[in-house]
Specification:
The chain is an alpha+beta fold. It contains 8 helices and 5 strands, in the order H-E-E-H-E-H-H-H-H-E-E-H-H. The chain folds into 2 domains: 155 residues, no CATH class; 33 residues, no CATH class.
Amino acid sequence: MTIYSPIPITEQIRSKFKPTRLYIKELFGIKYFGKSVKENVISYRGSGKVWRDRIKKYGPNSVNTTWVSEWFNEPTQLQEFALLFSELHQIVESSEWANCRPENGLDGGFVSNAFNSPYSINKRSQSQKGVKCPQRGRKGNPSKLKGVPKSEETKQKMSKPKSAEHIAKLQSILANNLNSIKIECPHCGIKVSKGLFTRWHGEKCRSTDLNLTG
């Protein structure tokens, strides 16, 4: 079992499940992979301890939504895709992502030891540099965990090396889903590919001009 292993889909999870979409947001070079049941994912800023610290530092207006999935109406498929994406991109281990634990798309009752892994502890420590926090005392006070050696055994338990075959399988499954995913423009409601969204929609959508002139 790894930190990217799925949790059992119980009847309780199914009964409380709501249609969900996954998203990727970016803030000054750091990405965050999350889920939301909100209609307007673009305006939703995202959550997560490290991600919230980053928003406090740079401001919510600097958050960019780079990708939004279609709706997932079934928890098993949602979890499979979310964990596959999390594992492929190593969102817990990688410094390019603000996630401190794998995203399974469900959350409810999900507790992962990944949150206390050397990777996530370091991310949380780094995110708090220069941020006033009661648990840290004086502004800019270094983390008590700074300089503590990380056990190689612990790292291996948290993330086993991925074989080329395993990575290829993950990429194949994700590609099939990603190719069918489009982003919905919050202004005109049209769903288009990421490339078209970047070029013609979002803040560049002509509907905003019509609203201003009409």
